[in-house]
Queue: 2 jobs
Job 1
Amino acid sequence: MANLITLKKVNKFYKNNYQALNKVSLNIKRGEIFALLGPNGAGKTTLINSICGLSYHSSGTIKVAGLSLEKNRMAIKSMIGLVPQELHLEAFDTVFSNVCYSRGLWGLKNNYDYINTLLKKLKLYEKKDSLLIQLSGGMKRRVLIAKALSHNPKILFLDEPSAGVDVELRQEMWQIIYKLREKGVTIILTTHYIEEAEEIADRVGFINEGKIILVEEKKKLLNKLGNKKLVLKLSKKFIKIPSFLNIYSVKLTKNGRELEINLDKSQNEAIDIINLIKKNNISFLEFDIKKRSLESIFINFIKENTNDKL
Ligand code: ADP
């Protein structure tokens, strides 16, 4: 897939001289779902706002569809829809007129067919004449998506789409996102909710303290790092990892009472390890095979990143 958005060494300093983005280089491919993951304050919103042209980056280059943001700010903005976390909606406006208004802001003519189809897709059509004040939280979230899509953008940014939504709405949002991708829309979402990235992203990028620390295809990431681990509850406390296990990626946890061994893809690996442990007379109370999540991978990366600096 070709790159649609390219960032090279992007820095952002706020007025108080705080550096919120630190030499961010990143490519987003046309038609993918890209999840930007990071803890609160990592720089996700700053990054999105910089690409969307809502705030000015301090140095480096941002290109969208081959155009440089510095020279083509308006053209780029019109290619992008942004679903913010929250937005003050005009309480006494109807859904229909509010979405039409958003389209008008782009200098586009009314297109009732397009807006009606959009509202149908987002299951908002029945509410088109309702006042925004009458809508539930979930419906309001859908209106935000409709507004972001009102000018038919090719790129959609969603800032924390699952923040504060219930399980049902989250599933529905994911279905909406999949359908948009099918139509060729490139989707970039930020989340600190790792299961969301694990569920829907094609690629993930981890950001911490304004730096991109890893970008990888989600499947590759989970495979490369092994997505399962063997957890053994030990009969007695260990101070260090027995040396015969050094060929594996092992961690001693729970104050020396548990061993966690990352597994790769071979089927019998867990059995081989258990046999090896028995052969070395290490007794354990029970074992379990657990799924490693992107979360544990992310935490490891944050730790490594922090250690580098110490
Ligand atoms: P995230 O979206 O990952 O939670 P943000 O991009 O909102 O992170 O913020 C990144 C960092 O920049 C935070 O430390 C935040 O306090 C700081 N920051 C955000 N906006 C401003 C601002 N207008 N002025 C100064 N610092 C800011």
Job 2
Amino acid sequence: MRQYDLVERVRSYNPDTNEDLLNRAYVYAMKAHGSQTRASGDPYFTHPLEVAAILTDLKLDDATIVAALLHDTIEDTEATRAEIDRLFGPEIGALVEGLTKLKRLELVSREAKQAENLRKLLLAIADDVRVLLVKLADRLHNMRTLEFVPEASRRRIAEETLDIYAPLAGRMGMQEMREELEDLSFRTLDPQAYDVVMQRLDALAERNRNLIGEIESQLARKFRDHGLTARVFGRRKRPFSIWTKMERKSIGFEQLSDIFGFRVIMPDLESCYRALGIVHTTWPVVPGRFKDYISTPKQNDYRSIHTTVIGPGKQRVELQIRTEEMDQIAELGIAAHAFYKDDIGSPTELLKRESNAFAWLRHTIGILSESANPEEFLEHTKLELFHDQVFCFTPKGKLIALPRHANVIDFAYAVHTDVGNSAVGCKINGKFAALSSELQNGDEVEVLTSDAQSAPPSAWETLAVTGKARAAIRRATRTAVRDQYAGLGRRIVERLFERTKLDYADDKLKGALPRLARASIEDVMAAVGRGEIKASDVARAMYPDYKEERIVRYGSKKTAAAAAKAAAAPTAEPARGAFAIPISGLNSGLPVKFAPNGGAVPGDRIVGIVTPGEGITIYPIQSPALKDFEEEPERWLDVRWDVDETTPQRFPARIRVENVNEPGSLAQVATVIAEHDGNIDNISMSRRSPDFTELTIDLEVYDLKHLSAIINQLRAKTIVARVDRVNG
Ligand code: MN
């Protein structure tokens, strides 16, 4: 901008401007700054000139424009207050000195100091509100050219702007100023979030391009039909304000009303209310959105009527209805008054009388000059900053903010616990992806759910990043395990009642709950499932003269040979109504393990034994260890293998081999096993006599057939005297 451009701009709104004063200030500042340069490499003088230009947009008076041109001269050049007083008068001298004081405040981000500096800032502007206006314009230009400043100070300046200057501009009713400061800070502090919002905003604006013009003309036509001349225009909302709204309410923006507001500018106050009547009788009103800030202005002097209707095109349309003057004050706030100064340049009676913002400022300054604790005020103006987050969207456009490194599991739980619990897959930006995929800024995530999945895999707990997801997963798995135990307990109880020919009914058990000291039937069943109480306790609670049975049904009364025969029999068919435990997958939620000494392999007839608090242990029916459970038949479960010949899984078995004690005999045994595809898990050796060695070998085999084949091959070796399967 050149000298005459500046003068032209001022003259356009102030025909009485003192051109000579402006020209002298221009030349003085340019000479004073001389060859100084800015971080960008531009001549330093471009800065005060741009600050002055910003203030011409606010239509400010000559003294303010001149103060803007001179604002850095006392601090940065040879200029003095006395010289400025002499050349431009004491009014301008005082303004420049006020700005010099502010410049000397080293604003740093440490809170206490920031609060103290804010106090000084406000005290410095106490005498003349125009100091604040120049200061804000100064900060705005510095923010616009922030890219040239080193990274470290860039952040600090942006934080300070968002913490102090933008809220202050808002408090002064300077909406435009506040919004631009916020957006520039937002872009600096969180460029990724800024980009995401902008992309979304652009896409939605493009999609609704025709609609906006359509709504504008329909509204204008409607007012014209009623003899009202209105200026109607759509205005795109600002990224930072959208962002904070999305954050605060945790909502997305998908509707036109989320990104566009419509202004209706009426010639006078009365027609504002007429326009409101026309709008409300033409389109359905969205309840709860009507606000009359004309009759009750906001604290920053803002006056307007707000309403939202389901307008043309069935779109939600947000309307702000106000007069031209109200619109000016809504945009410029206190600056709208500042031009109307009295002869000595102090705030006018109008400003003193009518401006809430000015009253607030004086009130605040009053508090600050009295109190030693400005932190409280700072707390109010401080805005939350958003660091280290990723921002994703649901297919409907709802924003989900997550910590960095979060994955789709976290996303699903952030949407809803039910979505998390039933998540089985996902699409990121339309492509199938793993649930553990780390999310990037701007990802659109569609979570695929299945009703069949009532609880998440417990392994998710370690995959999830957010505390919310982890807690929900823990809760869901705990519930699922409890349900499993309850189901198990019910089976145990039913078996006991079947066998003893007693009648079982939930109602009858309900009556017996106090005797069992449990709150519900489910609690009783889960306790039985966990082994905390016995099924016989349940029977006794329901039938006090019930005698505990001592019937032995499995194992020990049979001879070992008979048991082995039964085990080898191909008819390993489960009993009718057997309780299916998919031991191959171990995904029942209840811990399942094999008998510790000897294991079990498919082909074995097996039983499960419920162990209090532990789960189910699978024993082959011939296992002598089962003797220990004979007196608790309710702990016995018929289980079956959920595997077939194609299952590649191996199962544990133990064999005992007696072989001739000669060099290389152990190697021969190991070779036979290896040749027949058996895995040796462990070998322990003991010498029973000088001639024979006994080996106890833990194997992993596919099934009983596989195990038998290995045993037979070993028996065929001349060095082997005897081979037996061992069951613990
Ligand atoms: Mn400056």
